[in-house]
Design goal:
Layout lengths: L2 H14 L5 H15 L12 E2 H12 L4 H11 L6 E2 L1 H13 L2 H12 L6 E2 L1 H11 L9 H16 L7 E2 H10 L14 H11 L10
Antiparallel strand pairs: 1-2, 3-4
C-alpha cells in the first residue's frame, strides 16, 4: 500500500475510532497488511483475514484455546459476514477487544455468547459453551450433570426476570453487580498480560529506536 493511500485510510479510521490515536491506528493497519501478506488489492476482491488466520492470532497472541469461542469472536469482528475480517473491521474490533468501555465489552461478550443471534442466551447455549470451556476432568460423576447444575446456579444469579434465559438487560444488570460475570460463559476478551504485550509489541514508535 502506498504512503498516500495509507495516510488516507489511517485518517478515515482514526476519525471513527474512539480508543486508538492516529499513530496506533497506523500501527494496526501495518500489522494487518503484514498478517494478510502481500496481497494485491484488485477490484472486487476483499483483502482480509480469513477465519483460520484470525483464529491463529487469537490463539498465538491472546492465548485463546476454545474453538467455539474463537469462532464467535471471529463473527463478532466480521460485521458484514463476508467470511473475512477487513482492515476497518480489524481496527474497530480491536478497539473494543483491547480498550472498550464496560458498555462496549458487555455488548460484545453478549453477542459472542448469543450463539443463534436471537437476542437471548438460552439454557442450551449455556450448556453448549460451558461444556466446551470447562476442562475435561476425569471423575466418577457425569460431567453433564455438573454443567447443568452450574447453568442453574448461573441462571439463579443472572436471570433477573426469571424467564429461564438471559436477555441483554439481565446480563448487563448481573455484570454491573459482579464484574467477573462479564466472561461467564468463556474467555472472549484478552487477559491483561497478553493485551499489554500485544500493545507493547505493536505500538512501537520508530523514532524511539532511531529507525527511520
Amino acid at each position: 500500500m502506498n504512503r498516500k493511500k495509507l495516510q488516507k485510510l489511517t485518517e478515515s479510521l482514526t476519525k471513527d475510532c474512539k480508543h486508538f490515536n492516529k499513530f496506533e491506528v497506523k500501527c494496526l493497519i501495518s500489522l494487518f497488511y503484514n498478517l494478510v501478506g502481500d496481497v494485491t488489492e484488485r477490484q472486487g476482491v476483499v483483502v482480509g483475514l480469513d477465519r483460520n488466520a484470525f483464529r491463529n492470532i487469537l490463539h498465538v497472541t491472546f492465548g485463546m484455546t476454545d474453538d467455539m469461542i474463537m469462532d464467535r469472536v471471529f463473527r463478532g469482528f466480521d460485521k458484514d459476514n463476508d467470511g473475512c475480517v477487513s482492515v476497518s473491521e480489524w481496527v474497530y474490533g480491536l478497539s473494543v477487544f483491547l480498550r472498550g468501555t464496560l458498555e462496549e465489552k458487555m455488548k460484545y461478550c453478549f453477542e459472542v455468547f448469543d450463539l443463534n443471534g436471537d437476542g437471548f442466551i438460552s439454557k442450551e447455549e449455556m450448556v453448549h459453551m460451558l461444556k466446551n470451556s470447562l476442562l475435561k476432568q476425569p471423575s466418577e460423576e457425569d460431567p453433564d450433570e455438573g454443567i447443568k447444575d452450574l447453568v442453574e446456579i448461573t441462571l439463579k444469579k443472572m436471570d433477573h426476570d426469571h424467564d429461564g434465559k438471559l436477555s441483554f438487560p439481565d446480563y448487563e444488570a448481573a455484570v454491573r453487580e459482579e464484574a467477573l460475570l462479564l466472561e461467564a460463559f468463556g474467555p472472549c476478551l484478552p487477559d491483561p498480560k497478553s493485551q499489554k504485550e500485544f500493545e507493547a509489541q505493536v505500538f512501537k514508535d520508530p523514532n524511539e529506536f532511531g529507525e527511520v
